[in-house]
Amino acid sequence: MDKLVIRGGEPLLGTVRVSGAKNAALPCMAAALLTDEPVILENIPQVRDIQTTRNLLAAMGAEVELGYGRAHHRTTIHCQNLASPEASYELVKTMRASTLVLGPLVARCGRARVSLPGGCAIGQRPIDLHIKGLELLGAKITQDHGYVEATATRLRGAEIAFDKITVTGTEDLLMAATLADGETILQNAAREPEVADLAALLNKMGAKIQGAGTATIRIKGVAKLKGAKHRIIPDRIEAGTFLIAGALTGGDLNIAGCDPTHLVAILSKLKETGVKTKSTATSVRVMGDNPFAACDISTEEYPGFPTDMQAQFMALATQAEGTSIVTENIFENRFMHAQELVRMGANIKIEGRRAVVRGKTPLSAAAVLASDLRASASLVLAALVADGETIIDRVYHIDRGYEKIEEKLKGVGAQIRRIGNMLP
Ligand code: EPZ
Q1: What residues act catalytically?
Q2: Whole-prediction pTM value?
Q3: Given this model, what pLDDT does residue 50 score?
Q4: What span, in angstroms and rounded, lies between the C-alpha atoms of 347 and 48?
Q5: Which residues contact 22 (CB under 8 A, 6 or more apart)?
Q6: Which CATH code, of 3.65.10.10, 3.30.450.40, 3.40.50.150, 3.20.20.370, is assigned to 3-19+234-419?
Q7: What is the DSSP letter of 257?
Q8: Where are the domains of the chain?
Q9: pLDDT in tens, 395-406
Q10: Over the range 388-406, which residues count as b (16 or more CB within 10 Å of their CB) and which as e?
C-alpha cells in the first residue's frame, strides 16, 4: 500500500495545471451506454475511479479505449453490444458512483442489475431517490441479495420532484429521460457544473435537454442517440485544493486550466479570510504572503460552499488567526480528517455537524491515515505546513480523485515523495 512522505515548510511557487473533472467524466462515461455509436471524451483525468468505470463498462460488453498520451487524456467508448447490463458488487463496492449506469442501462437495454452501493466512510449514501425517479419513469424495480433490478419495455416521461438535491440522482435520471417516451421534468435538480457538462454531452448526442445547471431540467425523449465527441470541464475541487495549498504554504501559486466561474463560493471564502487571489478566464493566482483570519463555512449544494472542499478548508482554518466554525450539512460523517489533524497539533472540537477550529496552531509531522478522498487531500495540505516529515498511509484514497498529485506538488516546490509498500 503506497504512502506519501511530505516534509513541510516549503512555499508553493509557480504554475500547476488542473486535470479534467472526475465527477463530470464519470457520468459522461456512463452516458456512452445510451448509444450504439462511439463516444469520445477528452480531458479525462488519470485517476483510479476512471479506470474502475472503464472496467465496469468493459464487463458489460462495451469496448473502452483509454489513453493518456502526452497530447491527450482521451477515452473512446463503444457500447455496440451490451451482453450483460450489470454492475457487480465487486466493482460497485470500490466506487459507489457505479450506480450512474442504472438509468442509462434501463433506458437503452430495458433492464439493469446493479449492486446497491452500500455505505462508505463519509455516510450511508442511499440511492432511494434514484430508484423512486426510475419508478416514476415506469421502471419496475425489485431489490434482493444486495442488488437492485430495474426493467422497462420503454420508459415514459414524467414529472419528478427530488425530496433532496442529489447530484448523481439528477444525472442518473437525466440520462434515463433522454430515451423516454415524452417529456420529463426534473424539479429540485442538482445545479452542479458537472450536471451541466453531462447535459452538454447528451445534447451533442441528440438529446433534447433544457435547463441543466438550474433547479428545473426539461427533457424531451428521443428514439435514439448518436455518438459524439466532448471535452470534460476542469476539476473545480482539484483547483480549490491547490488554491488552499498556495494560501497555506504562504506561496505564490498560479492554478492554470481551471474555470473560475465554478469557484465563486471558494474564492469568496478565501477573500473573507484575507487570502489574496487574482483570476483570469482560465486561471486563478493565489498569494499567501500575509496572515489570514478565521472564517465560518457551511457546506451547501452548488452554488454554495462545496462539501468536497470542507476537509481542505478545515486544514486552512487550523492556520487562521481565530475560531472558525465548519458546518457539514450534506454528509453525516465527513469529519474523519479532524482527528488526524488534531494528532498533528490542530485544535478542533466536533459538536455533531459542527467542527470548532481554533487557530493558529503550529502543526507537527506525524504518521497519519487517509480515510476518504477529500480527507486525504486535507492531510496532504496539513503536511505541507507541518514541522518535519509526515507519512500518509492508504493514499489509494487520494489516487481515486487526484491525478499525479505528488508530481504536481513537487513541480511547484513541495518536498513530497511516494513510497511503495516497504514489506518484503
Ligand atoms: C456526488 O455524490 C459526488 N460524487 C460527491 O463527490 C459529492 O460529495 C456529492 O455529490 C455532493 O456534492 C460524484 O459526483 C461521483 P448526493 P452523490 O446524491 O451524488 C443524500 C468526491 O469527493 N441522498 O448529491 O452520491 C445523500 O445521502 C465525491 O468526489 C439520499 O438521501 O451525492 C447525501 O446526504 C464524494 N438519497 C445527499 O443526498 C439518494 O438517493 C447528497 O448526496 C441520493 C442521495
Answers
A1: 120
A2: 0.97
A3: 95
A4: 33
A5: 45, 47, 49, 50, 235, 400, 401
A6: 3.65.10.10
A7: S
A8: 3-19+234-419, 22-231
A9: 899 999 999 999
A10: eebbbbbbebbbbbbbebb
Mean pLDDT per 10-residue section of the chain, whose length is 424 residues: 94 98 98 98 95 94 85 88 91 90 97 85 86 98 93 97 98 98 98 98 98 98 98 98 97 98 98 97 93 96 98 98 98 94 97 96 95 94 97 93 96 96 49
Using the atom order of ligand 1, give the atom closest to the CA of residue 306. 12
Instruction: For residue 417, give Cα distances in angstroms to 7, 374, 407.
Output: 9, 19, 8
For residue 330, the ligand 1 atom closest to its alpha carbon is 34
Q: What is the pLDDT of residue 110?
A: 96
Q: Show the cell assigned to 384.
A: 505541507
Grid cell 460523517 — which residue? 333
User: Rounded to an integer, what distance in angstroms lies between the CA atom of residue 56 and that of residue 104?
Assistant: 13
**Nine cell digits for residue 234:** 476542469
Within this chain, domains 3-19+234-419 and 22-231 share the same CATH topology: yes
Pocket of ligand 1 (CB under 6 A): 23, 26, 97, 123-130, 164, 166-169, 307-308, 330-331, 373-374, 401
CA distance 10 to 257: 24
pLDDT at 71: 55
**Distance of alpha carbon 324 from alpha carbon 14, whole angstroms:** 29
Q: Select from 52, 136, 167, 262 the residue to mutate for testing ligand 1; criterion: most ligand atoms less than 8 Å from CB.
A: 167
User: CATH assignment of 22-231, given 3.30.720.120, 3.40.50.300, 3.65.10.10, 3.40.50.2300?
Assistant: 3.65.10.10
Taking the CA of residue 105 as centre, how many other CA atoms within 13 Å lie in the half-sphere pointing to its CB? 24
CA-based nearest residue to 75, from 59, 105, 51: 51
